[in-house]
């Protein structure tokens, strides 16, 4: 019986022949050494190595942890516009749930990156949330930009993959 452990992220595979990296087309395969390597010990080695590689693979496949992981109690409070003729509530009409999804998907950026690479709309929705159990205020603007203000700290965020949240509004 040949022992093999396969992982969801397809980054590596371990079998009795050793670790094999996945190739773009097909897989690299090693020669199996059977001499003096009984089925029981092979299975035990494969299980131990499989558990180790599974832990490594999970760590490699996981999204990086950031402060957004602990966002709760997202509440929409108001809409504000500096140009009501051109930037209306329908441009950023998100629900509480959609606002929470925005911040869970968003990534932090510095003020210079935000200024240089994103259009800052003259309107926003704003509300409150808890991040890591701390009460915070937030803003989301059309185009996928926003900010989180907790205490004396303000974090700017962008969500390049949130277009569907703003569609049909």
- Strand percentage lies at 25-35%
**What is the overall shape?**
elongated
Query: How many β strands by DSSP?
Result: 9
Integer tally of domains: 2
- Mean pLDDT score, rounded? 74
Instruction: Please trace the helix and strand order, writing H or E for each element.
Output: EEEHEHEHEEEEH
Helix/strand/pairing category = alpha+beta
Question: What gyration radius follows from the Cα positions, in whole Å?
Answer: 24 Å
Which strands sit side by side, in order, in the main sheet? Answer: 4-6-7-8-9-5
Unreliable runs: 1-37, 53-65
Biggest β-sheet description: 6 strands, antiparallel
Fraction in helix: 25-40%
For the record, give the distance between the C-alpha atoms at the N and C termini, rounded to a whole number: 58 Å
Number of helical segments with 4 or more residues: 4
């Amino acid at each position: 019986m040949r022992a093999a452990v396969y992982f969801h992220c397809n980054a590596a595979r371990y079998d009795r022949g050793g670790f094999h990296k996945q190739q773009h087309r097909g897989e690299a395969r090693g020669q199996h050494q059977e001499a003096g390597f009984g089925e029981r010990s092979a299975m035990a080695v494969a299980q131990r190595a499989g558990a180790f590689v599974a832990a490594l693979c999970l760590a490699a496949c996981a999204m990086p942890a950031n402060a957004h992981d602990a966002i709760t109690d997202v509440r929409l409070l108001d809409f504000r516009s500096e140009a009501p003729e051109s930037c209306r509530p329908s441009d950023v009409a998100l629900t509480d749930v959609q606002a929470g999804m925005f911040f869970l998907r968003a990534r932090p950026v510095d003020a210079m990156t935000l200024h240089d690479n994103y259009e800052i709309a003259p309107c926003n929705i704003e509300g409150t949330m808890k991040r890591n159990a701390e009460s915070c205020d937030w803003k989301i603007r059309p185009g996928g930009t926003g900010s989180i203000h907790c205490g004396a700290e303000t974090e700017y965020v962008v969500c390049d993959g949130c277009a569907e949240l703003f569609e049909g509004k």
